[in-house]
Structure formats: C-alpha cells, structure tokens
Write a structure and sequence with these properties.
Elements lengths: L11 E7 L5 E7 L6 E7 L3 E3 L5 E3 L2 H9 L9 H17 L4 E3 H15 L1 H11 L5 H18 L4 H4 L2
Parallel strand pairs: 4-6
Antiparallel strand pairs: 1-2, 2-3, 4-5
Helix pairs in contact: 1-2, 2-3, 3-4
The structure holds zinc ion.
Function: Negatively regulates transcription of bacterial ribonucleotide reductase nrd genes and operons by binding to NrdR-boxes.
Organism: Demequina mangrovi
GO molecular function, one term: DNA binding
Length: 161
C-alpha cells in the first residue's frame, strides 16, 4: 500500500481493528519515508450480477441514482438517499454473499425506501415489480395501510393481557 502523502511504495501497519459488525477491518498505517499516518479500510468485495450476465462492483451511487427518479418532488434530501444506500449495502452484506443478483438489490431497496417515503416507495415498486393495472396499485396501497395499522398499535397485545 503506497503512502497517499509522498507516494512512497511501502507503509507499515501500526494498528488493526475489526468493525463492530465484523464486516470490515480498519488498519492504521505509517509511512516509513515521511512519517505520516493514514487509515485503510478493508471490506469483502461485493459484485452485482446484472440481467445481461455482466458483473460489476456494487456501488452506493448506483442505488442513489436508481431511486432518485422515484423521489422526484418528494421531501427526500441527498442525505436521506445516502443513508438509504448505506442501509441497502448493510442489508446485502448481512447476507454474507460475495455476489448478488441485480433483482435482489431491488428487493433490498424496498423496505428502507418505504420507511423514507411511501409515495416514492409506490413509484419504485410499480416499476420494479412491473405493476400493470390500477388493481396492482390498489393491492400495494392496501398492504401499506394494513401494515401501518398493525405498527400503529404496538401495545395492543400487552394491553389485552
Ligand atoms: Zn509518505
């Protein structure tokens, strides 16, 4: 690993620690030439298998650009989108696979997008799940309503005891 300050071709690891969730290792390094210190982060590589059979590196930017259209005109900030992309990556990495299908990324986007904005969620789901008819929208909205009603009364079970 070369030094980002002086481009010296060598550096020395002075500390390594694993992230709390075990998904990455941070290494503190020191350059023997200029004495400056820097950190590297090591994660397992994650590739995406596209429908045309080509694989490419997973990219949070692509998640953001993929949902941006669905969020047009909605109260969703760039920070919200960055956080969404982070949640999607964490969800995918939690599965422990080194390669995932592009379709699975769509599935991983749906839950955090729904938390963020239900209209954007419906727009994204309508494209991703190829809604054809008004009935498809009605069914998706009915599901949202039913699940919202359940989560609005979290203490119902304990109250009835
Ligand atoms: Zn250096």
């Amino acid at each position: 690993m070369h030094c980002p300050f002086c481009r010296n071709g060598d550096s020395r690891v002075i500390d390594s620690r694993t992230a709390d969730d075990g998904s990455s290792i941070r290494r503190r390094r020191e350059c023997p030439a200029c004495g400056k210190r820097f950190t590297t982060v090591e994660t397992a590589s994650l590739s995406v298998l596209k429908r045309n059979g080509v694989t490419e590196a997973f990219s949070r930017d692509k998640i953001v650009s993929g949902v941006k259209k669905a969020c047009q005109g909605r109260p969703v900030s760039d920070d919200d989108l960055a956080l969404l992309a982070q949640k999607v990556e964490e969800a995918i990495r939690a599965n422990g696979q080194a390669e995932i299908n592009a379709l699975e990324i769509g599935l991983a986007i749906l839950p955090p997008l729904r938390e963020l904005d239900e209209i954007a969620y419906l727009r994204f789901a309508s494209v991703y799940q190829a809604f054809d008819t008004l009935e498809d929208f009605e069914a998706a909205i009915a599901r949202l309503r039913a699940e919202d009603a359940v989560s609005d009364r979290p203490s119902a079970s304990s109250a009835s005891e």
